[in-house]
Amino acid sequence: MTWADALKGFEFYLRLEKSLSQNSIEAYLADVRKLCSFAGGMDGLLAPEEVNTELIREMLRFFKEAGLTERSQARIVSGIKAFYRYLLLEGVIREDPSERIEAPKIGRKLPEVLTISEIDAMENAVDLSKPEGHRNRAMIEVMYSCGLRVSELVNLRISHIHRKDEYVRILGKGNKERLVPIGSRAMKEIDLYLPWRNHLPSIDPRDSDILFLNRNGKKLTRVMVFLIVKDLAEKAGVRKQISPHTFRHSFATHLIEGGADLRAVQEMLGHASILTTEIYTHIDKEYLRDAILRFHPRAGNHS
Fold it and tell me: Which of 115, 151, 157, 196 has the lowest tally of Cβ within 10 angstroms?
C-alpha cells in the first residue's frame, strides 16, 4: 500500500468510524506524515507496512534530541498507534510495529479552576451599559452553568433550549448529542440578552437560530469569546491564566466537590470515557478523606 492510499483510507476511518472532529483528524494525519517523511517520503523507500518498531523508535529519538516536548512526542505516538491499528483492521499488516512503543510519561497539568466568587466577579465586571453587555454576561453564565466547550457555546441554537424541561440540547464532538440541564440563573441571563439580539439591524439567515451573535448578526468566533473572557478576567482582578475552557473545568470540579456522581458529570460533559472526566476532577485531599470516612465500610472505628 502506498502512503497516499494509506493516509486517505486512514482519514476516512477517523471521520466515519471514529467520528473525530476535523481538527483531531488533521492532527492524526500530521503525525503519520512525520513517519512517512522519516521512512523516505511519499515516493518512499519504505511502504507503511514495511515500517518496523526500530524505525519508529529511531524517529522518536530524533524528535527527542531535536527538543520536542514530551507532550508533543506522546501525541505523535498516539497518532502512529491509531494509524497502525487501522492498517491492522484493514488486513494490510499482520503485526503492529507500534504495539511495543511506549509514549513518554507526562504529568497531568491541571488547568486553573475559578471559585464561585471569581465567576461572580467576572459577571459583575460586565459593562451592562454597552449594547453587548447582557450577551457577554449570559455567555459566561451559560458556559459555567452547562459546562460547555467554547465550540458548543458559539453553536448553541435557540431551538435547542427547552425551557419547560429546563435543559439544552448540545451538539458535541463527533456530532454526538447530549442533554444538559440549564438553571434558572442562566435562563434569566439569556432572557435579559434576547431583546438586544432580537433588535439587531440584520441577522445572517445562516445564523438565524444561533443564540449568541455579534453586532453584525453573525455567529461569534471562538477567538472572540476567548478575548471577552480575558478582558473580563482582567477587569475582575482575576490573576489566573484562564480561557473559556476554564469555566467547563470549574463546572465539573464544583459538581464533584459538591458530591455529584462521576458518571453523571461524564454524561453532562459529553466524555466518551470516564478516564477523561477524571482529569477534570482534582478533588482536594480533605474532601477525599471525608468521602472515604463517610462511605467506606472499613473506614469507621469498628471493633
Answer: 115
Q: What is the pLDDT of residues 9-67, one digit of tens each?
A: 999 989 888 878 888 899 999 999 988 888 875 445 788 999 999 999 999 998 888 88
Which residue in this structure is represented by grid cell 459546562? Answer: 147
Per-residue pLDDT of 243-264, as tens digits, reads: 898 998 888 888 877 777 777 7
**64: its cell numbers:** 527527542
Determine the structural domain holding residue 144 and report its residue range: 116-289
Alpha-carbon span 173 to 134, nearest angstrom = 28
Give dist(CA 58, CA 53) in Å, integer: 9
Are the beta carbons of 169 and 176 closer than 8 angstroms? no
On whether both 191 and 237 belong to a single domain, the answer is yes
Residue with C-alpha cell 435547542?
Answer: 160
What CATH number is attached to the domain comprising 143? 1.10.443.10
**Is 300 a domain residue?**
no
Closest-CA residue to 233 (of 124, 150, 109, 142): 124
Cα–Cα distance between 45 and 40 in angstroms, integer? 5
Q: Is residue 154, in this structure, part of any structural domain at all?
A: yes
- Max CA distance (Å), the chain: 75
Q: Which residues are catalytic?
A: 149, 173, 245, 248, 271, 280
147 backbone dihedrals φ, ψ, rounded to 5°? 65, 40
pLDDT band, residue 285 (cuts 50/70/90): very low
Measured CA to CA, the distance from residue 181 to residue 173 in angstroms comes to: 18
Query: Of 89, 107, 136, which closes a domain?
Result: 89
Beta bridge partners of 178: 170
- Residue pair 167/289 in contact by the 8 Å Cβ criterion: no
